[in-house]
Prior knowledge:
heterodimer; A: ABC transporter involved in vitamin B12 uptake, BtuC; two-stranded antiparallel sheet; 12 helices; B: mainly alpha; ABC transporter involved in vitamin B12 uptake, BtuC
Amino acid sequence: MVTELISGAIYSSITLLTPLLLVGLAELLVERSGILNLNVEGSMLIGAFTAFMVAYYTQDLGIATLSAALAGVIMCMLFSILTVSLSLDQMVTGLAMNILTIGITSYLYRASFGWYVSPIPPHIKETIKPIGIPVLSEIPFIGDILFKHMPHTYVAVILAFMAWWVLFKTDWGLRIRAIGEDPQVADYLGINVNSTRYILLFIEGVVVGIAGSLLSIAYYNMFLDNMTQGRGYIAIALVILARWNPLLLLAGSFLFSLIDAIQLRIMALGLTAFPSQLSLMLPYLVTIIILLVAGRKAKGPAALAKPFKKTR
Amino acid sequence: MAIGVAFLLGAVILYVAGADPIVAYYWLFHGAFSEVSFSETLVRATPLLFISLGLAVTFTARVWNIGAEGQFYIGATFAAILGLYLKDAPHPFGLIILLLASVAGGVAWAFLPAILRAYYGINEIITTLMFNYIAIYTVSYLLHNPFREPASMFPETTTLPEQLWMPIVIPGTRLHAGILLAFISIPFLYFVLRKTAFGMKIEILGSSRRTAEYAGIDAARLIIQSMLISGMFAGLAGGIEVLGIQHKMRLEISPSISPYGYTAIAVTLLGYLNPILVAATSIFLGGVINGSMTMHRMANVPVGMAGIFQALIIIFIMVGYYLEDKFANKLLERLNLW
């Protein structure tokens, strides 16, 4: 019984960590290059929306995932045109684009399904299912917890190690970090600041769009207005917690999701003495506590969120 | 120019969605700036104006308080709930106490993120954002359980008695004394930011914390002060919205498509942190919000369109600023000479 509870909590926390880890990793790399993209929230939302719409009309989850990635890329490219090429303020652009996304998604949703959202919203029949890795998933206990997840989860964990390797062990990673510390100097050294940032934001678009799609075609089988509910922002908080280190991010997002999973279990027990609002606000409270414990004096890339204009 | 492009793009979206853009725009402008509706535009602009004036102070210090939404909610709730206990308070006193309560609510909600930023260096963007969600869930709990009006279908508090309401300035409209308070605050904040030692210190802190510390400025204290000032204004905005418009606390007090607390961030930055420009911007955006509601009712355009419009306008104004960089710089220089 107890082992079942523990393994259940760990299993669902690994499931829950997937979008956070994916978004966090992409944002981590982008922030390392000195760009603060608050629009991950909006890109996730548009990913969730696009994936749902495509899945609803084509019944094909693969195409849905691809179009979510495309939608994420469009958002991130728009963001990079505004902030990288035009050097607009990254925070305002990000926040304005988030408002834009909430508007566009809820508008288009109503434009396709009617002005009134019925109590039973349109839903899709199939969602993304976990797949067991052959052999490994046969291992008792560990196999059940670690090797029976959605493909996205395995990819996310592998990406965490890859991101760490790229960032700290390759020339390209060194260049990214140099840009994030001082784009002016990096520019003098002959690194193309803007194109590096564009490439990173492109990757972020793909990853964040797919992470968003999990909400509407894996965890739920429907789309809800503003269904990301600040998950993009939480991912940014986790990046700070991890001090811009991909492996710490892996650990941090696991810890966060574990608390989230336990919270969901408590809510499922239906204790009336425990108000549901308290449960719902727990992830945000935990984020604050995490920042309190681990985020003290966290120093990010020196040039983070500062507009850069190339001087000739 | 920038606004023109935004409207052109908006017209395309409207057309694609099957609405007639010309009819829709007629109602947008009619609903925003015609004689009958301008008072309603000012009503919309009032919370935006208060919140953005406060944000102008923190943003000048380069402290990014994104938590105005939560501070607004808590301020509004403080006023609405305390009002239930002050039902018999005589006219101006009860109102003043409630406004002070809303200020206290906003300040209280800004306090912890301020301390965390000032003394522990914890990123205020994230903490204030998280505090927004915590605030809204707390308010939701209070409205669903202990303070719910039993006769209402919605989670909201009991309507306050009329002697606690903000007096109406122009009879026949919803325009209340809050807008007068806002107009008084504009020159006051302008003075504080541009002409006092406090404003000067904040500006130095904003340009570089290190310089500020060399100059003997207690940076941590100043960060807290500036955060509390913006909390104060956001809380007051909440209180004024409750006492002037809603007369009770509801969960949808801030429009969900364009929440006041977030829209105000854009207003503040678009207004170059200058109280006068901030005021003009908030009235303009108040008009857009109000006009798109009319457009929604009269031209059968869904509400999401309001959000799209605002965002497009904000983005294109920013692009416009970039294109007119030289012009903007000149404008800024001139404003600094004042």
